[in-house]
Structures are given as C-alpha cells and as structure tokens.
Design brief:
Length: 81
Amino acid sequence: MSSPNLGGFSLHKVNAVETMAVLEPLAKQGKLETINNICGWINAIRDYAVNTGLIHSNPLPEISKAFSSPLDQKLIFCPPG
C-alpha cells in the first residue's frame, strides 16, 4: 500500500481532506511533533503563495488544530562538572 502525499497536487488543489489523509497515519503513530512541524511548513508555503499572488487564500490556516498537540517535555538540567 502506498502512503498518501501532497507532492502531486498543485497549490490550488490541496485542501483539508487530502492534507488530513496524509497526516492521519502520523497521528496514529503518535508523531504529534512531526505533524505540528509539517502544518507549520504547509502554512508558511501557503502564506508565501498568498502574499506573492499565486493563490487567493489559505484554506488550511488552522489545520494543526485537527490533531492533538504535542506534549511539552521538560528538559533535565545537568550542572556542569
């Protein structure tokens, strides 16, 4: 079975349904930080496309809210020496 991807779609055709289909397998694996990063990259690309006139709007500005947020992990401080 091949995994879904957005690489073959033009910016005009990427929508929430297709994006969710790509990200859902990662959510099932618990890769919430990866999903958060990907959503940020998608929105940065789409915002750039809006600002340069390639597309009229970004239909995915809040797509990351469809998934659980990654848990904050506290870093352990080890004093030097």
